[in-house]
């Protein structure tokens, strides 16, 4: 008999994927010029040349037995040390190789981190708007995902609602900054206040509360924006990172989980992640990708286009009449829909105008929609009249 649990999940397809698939169907039927696709966060800039050269060099000159052999379950020590050294140099931390666990992107890092610190009968708190895949990541641990409502005026943490959501069964708090879908970056003041509350609650409840940070957009922060490294502010923290966005390699599925050396039981968490892999079949990224990342660990793609696109699109949308919190990083924007039903608005824009945007309901922020502007600037310029036409359909 097949699993009813996973069978039932097949009827809950990602809304992002629904709109992405519709865009492909429309392009096939009406031609690619009929579609203005802002649905999915696939980087539009190439990976650094050094990344491709590193792979070629490894394949041509590396030892093929080592290169294509099994990586240790906990990852290659040289890769782990390179990541630790980079974090220490950039953020003044004290990571060692033993605190780093290479994973299949940030998704793999989150799934492992959550299983290490949360389980049956416990709660993980996150903040709306949030990436919808947090639901299966947390559900897979046996814990409950508890969501703090969004402060739609700023998309910083709604601390009043957060304190109301806290209870003794909270095992972890999960944050995403820079944020998908809002583009907002939590300030140092926000992170400091969050850390202070967590320390107070740890003392009150008599157990540690882990702060898990989802950071695939860490490098995409705009000029002059305050973007603290969260783990500097709170000891019981686990950083989850992906190179998908920083060096534009989402298809390579390479990232890591970094355990704060000051965390309670820090020495056990990476070995525990290795045990989690036995249940999920993860068994670490390929040796080739780990070794290639070593060569470019401090590099990024040319990310400047995202700030340029953000400025162009934000100015155009607000001039049209859309209400929107200005993005400070990532390549997402999260305006309010001109009508309360963002699903209706997004599907009408898609079917009548070929404008593919994603409703905010699945991010638990109804009445908003997400624009993924990691596209060529000329596509944005061509799409601005369509955003205007979509807005005017409801005026």
Fold and architecture overview:
Helix 3 packs across helix 11 and helix 13 (342-353) crosses helix 14 (377-392). It is globular, with a radius of gyration of 21 Å. The model has no long low-confidence stretch (mean pLDDT 95). The relative contact order is 0.17. Strands 2-8-7-6-5-3-4 form a seven-stranded mixed sheet, with helices on both faces. The protein is built from 14 helices and twelve strands. Helix content is 42%, strand content 12%. The protein has helices at 4-9, 15-30, 49-61, 64-67, 77-91, 105-117, 134-139, 159-165, 188-205, 266-280, 287-295, 304-320, 342-353, 377-392; strands at residues 36-37, 100-103, 123-127, 144-148, 170-176, 210-214, 237-242, 255-259, 332-333, 355-356, 358-359, 369-372. It is α/β, with parallel strands linked by helices.
In brief, what are we looking at here?
This protein is an alpha/beta fold. It contains 14 helices and 12 strands.
Structure characteristics:
seven-stranded mixed sheet; 395 residues; three-stranded antiparallel sheet; alpha/beta; single chain
Topology:
Blueprint: H1 4-9, H2 15-30, E1 36-37, H3 49-61, H4 64-67, H5 77-91, E2 100-103, H6 105-117, E3 123-127, H7 134-139, E4 144-148, H8 159-165, E5 170-176, H9 188-205, E6 210-214, E7 237-242, E8 255-259, H10 266-280, H11 287-295, H12 304-320, E9 332-333, H13 342-353, E10 355-356, E11 358-359, E12 369-372, H14 377-392
Parallel strand pairs: 1-10, 3-4, 3-5, 5-6, 6-7
Antiparallel strand pairs: 2-8, 7-8, 9-12, 11-12
């Amino acid at each position: 008999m097949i699993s009813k649990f996973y069978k039932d999940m097949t009827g809950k397809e990602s809304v992002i994927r629904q709109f992405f698939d519709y865009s492909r169907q429309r392009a096939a039927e009406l031609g690619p010029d009929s579609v203005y696709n802002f649905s999915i966060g696939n980087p539009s800039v190439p990976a650094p040349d050094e990344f491709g050269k590193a792979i070629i060099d490894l394949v041509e000159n590396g030892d093929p037995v080592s290169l294509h052999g099994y990586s240790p379950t906990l990852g290659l020590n040289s890769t782990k040390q390179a990541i630790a050294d980079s974090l220490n140099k950039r953020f003044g931390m004290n990571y060692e190789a033993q605190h780093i666990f290479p994973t299949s992107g940030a998704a793999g890092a989150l799934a492992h981190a959550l299983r290490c610190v949360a389980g049956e009968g416990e709660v993980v708190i996150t903040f709306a708007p949030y990436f919808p895949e947090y639901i299966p990541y947390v559900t897979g641990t046996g814990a409950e995902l508890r969501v703090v409502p969004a402060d739609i005026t700023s998309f910083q943490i709604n601390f009043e609602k957060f304190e109301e959501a806290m209870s003794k069964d909270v095992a972890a708090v999960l944050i995403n900054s820079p944020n998908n879908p809002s583009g907002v970056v939590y300030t140092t003041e926000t992170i400091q206040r969050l850390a202070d509350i967590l320390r107070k609650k740890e003392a009150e409840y008599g157990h540690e509360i882990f702060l898990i940070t989802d950071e695939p957009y860490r490098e995409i922060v705009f000029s002059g924006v305050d973007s603290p490294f969260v783990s500097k502010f709170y000891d019981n923290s686990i950083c989850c990172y992906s190179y998908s966005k920083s060096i534009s390699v989402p298809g390579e599925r390479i990232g890591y989980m970094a355990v704060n050396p000051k965390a309670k039981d820090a020495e056990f968490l990476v070995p525990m992640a290795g045990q989690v892999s036995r249940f999920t079949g993860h068994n670490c990224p390929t040796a080739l990708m780990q070794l290639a990342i070593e060569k470019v660990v401090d590099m990024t793609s040319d990310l400047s286009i995202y700030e340029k696109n953000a400025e162009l699109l934000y100015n155009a949308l607000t001039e049209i009449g859309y209400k929107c919190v200005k993005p400070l990083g990532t390549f997402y924007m999260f305006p309010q829909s001109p009508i309360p039903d963002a699903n209706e608005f997004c599907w009408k824009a898609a079917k009548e105008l070929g404008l593919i945007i994603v409703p905010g309901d699945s991010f638990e922020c109804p009445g908003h929609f997400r624009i993924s502007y990691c596209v060529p600037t000329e596509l944005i310029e061509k799409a601005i009249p369509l955003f205007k036409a979509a807005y005017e359909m409801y005026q």
